[in-house]
Design a protein that fits this description.
With 402 residues, this protein is of the alpha/beta class. It has two domains: 4-193, DHBP synthase, CATH 3.90.870; 203-401, Rossmann fold (3-Layer(aba) Sandwich). Helices cover 45% and strands 17% of the residues. The chain has helices spanning 10-18, 40-50, 67-71, 77-86, 103-106, 120-129, 149-156, 195-204, 219-228, 236-246, 248-257, 269-276, 280-307, 339-350, 354-362, 367-373, 384-401, and strands at 4-6, 23-25, 32-36, 60-61, 72-73, 91-97, 111-115, 133-134, 162-164, 176-179, 186-189, 207-212, 232-235, 262-263, 266-267, 312-316, 331-336, 376-379. Strands 1, 2, 3, 4, 5, 6, 7, 8, 9, 10 and 11 form an eleven-stranded mixed β-sheet that branches. It has a five-stranded parallel β-sheet with strand order 13-16-12-17-18, with helices on both faces. The longest helix is centred in the C-terminal third of the chain and has 28 residues, at 280-307.
């Protein structure tokens, strides 16, 4: 057999694929050895030419995300989100296969990986032949994956029908593999894309609602309503306190900024409070440090939640606006209440005097601040059931619009 070199006439390559032949194709990662993913004979030939164990399933190259619904079942919306973010590109998404996919491609399993390669010639081939391509890397099993057409010829000259010469591959690493056939989603192979990058792309698509407002306004009731919608609720103040117990880097930075405040790995919060609340510049310094660590931890938890298949999350943060976290939110809800109701709630909750509660309220931002900066305002001046109903109605409206 003569192995043909193809540089521009993609119709020739498409005819070979339709006839059940094999063509090496360029991608942004490495060259792949391609045959029709719907032709069992072609797929068997791929296994034989590569010397690939038949217990190892093959992925399919497709031209765009519409192929997900064509070849897969129970496709989660998050799979489309990742496709929009990374395709064409080095991400293979594993989903439940439809019966149209030959069992030999699945190697006895029920799932199939789909990938849209970022190379114009291979995209043109996929669109021209109208078939998904089974296309593992174009190397004998155990050998380095080829990054140029010449390397493919060294491996398979005379054993395959053609090589599309698209020049050297840019990345030189295989695609990252993510299993989205069930939750939690799992990275099966971390390669061209890191797990953090993939998880961050999922987290960016979460519907994130920010909840803020001064003390004593009853944010907890609203947050419970969000939990009923399936939201992950992140209490930023609680996260900060957790980090003070576990994050040595945070404690080291606080000690460097405020010498003597950390003893034996424990922050003297009361002493630090006396310092920062008497000096606005030192309070700003504390906030810059603490907000950065809290934001990093919030992002980590959002990534983990997104990999669990989560869709909705809420941030509970008094400093939501000033910490710069509101920018990431689809909506920000300020919860306000009459001062006398706030005083009563704070006294009961914290077991403090009326004078102490009033002092705390006077040190906080006025209602006008939240009315100016938040996209929505909820007033908690009625009974708990009425406020819960108002919260539920608003969150339903936000989520439906999202």
């Amino acid at each position: 057999m003569e192995t043909k070199r193809i540089t521009d006439n993609i119709e020739d390559a498409a005819q070979i694929i339709r006839a059940g032949g094999l063509v090496a194709v360029p991608t942004e990662t490495v060259y792949g050895l391609a045959g029709s993913g719907l032709n069992e004979t072609a797929v068997k030939e791929i296994y034989e030419v590569k010397g690939r164990p038949k217990i190892k399933a093959l992925s399919l190259m497709v031209p765009d995300e519409s192929a997900m619904e064509r070849y897969c079942e129970e496709v989660p919306p998050q799979a489309h989100q990742l496709a929009k973010h990374f395709w064409p590109g080095p991400l293979t998404i594993v989903l439940k296969a439809k019966p149209a996919i030959p069992s030999i491609v699945l190697a006895g399993g029920t799932t199939v990986g789909l990938r849209c390669p970022d190379h114009p010639l291979t995209i043109e081939l996929l669109k021209t032949c109208g078939l998904p391509l089974a296309a593992p890397s174009a190397n004998p099993s155990g050998e380095p994956s080829p990054k140029t057409a010449e390397q493919v010829f060294e491996y398979f000259d005379g054993r395959i029908d053609a090589v599309i010469d698209g020049g050297p591959c840019g990345i030189g690493r295989e695609s990252t593999l993510i299993d989205m056939s069930r939750t939690p989603y799992r990275i099966l192979r971390e390669a061209a894309l890191s797990e953090e990058v993939v998880a961050e792309a999922l987290a960016e698509e979460l519907t994130l609602i920010g909840i803020t407002g001064p003390s004593g306004c009853g944010k907890t009731t609203a947050l419970r309503e969000l939990e009923a919608f399936g939201a992950l609720v992140l209490d930023c103040d609680a996260i900060y306190h957790e980090l003070l117990e576990s994050d040595k880097a945070l404690l080291d930075e606080l000690e460097a900024a405020f010498p003597g405040m950390v003893r034996d790995g424990v922050l003297d919060r009361k002493a630090l409070g006396r310092i920062v609340f008497a000096d606005p510049e030192k309070l700003l310094l504390l906030n810059r440090i603490s907000h950065r660590y809290v934001k990093e931890e919030v992002n980590r938890r959002l990534r983990a939640f997104a990999m669990q298949g989560g869709r909705i999350a809420a941030l509970d943060a008094v400093e939501l606006i000033s910490a710069g976290m509101a920018d990431r939110c689809a909506a920000t809800v300020g919860i306000l209440s009459d001062p006398e109701l706030r005083v009563d709630r704070i006294m009961q909750r914290d077991n403090i005097s009326r004078e102490a509660a009033l002092s705390r309220i006077s040190a906080q931002k006025p209602d006008s601040y939240y009315q100016t900066h938040c996209t929505h305002i909820l007033f908690n001046n009625a009974d708990k059931e009425s406020f819960a109903s108002d919260s539920r109605r608003l969150f339903k409206e936000i989520l439906n619009h999202g």
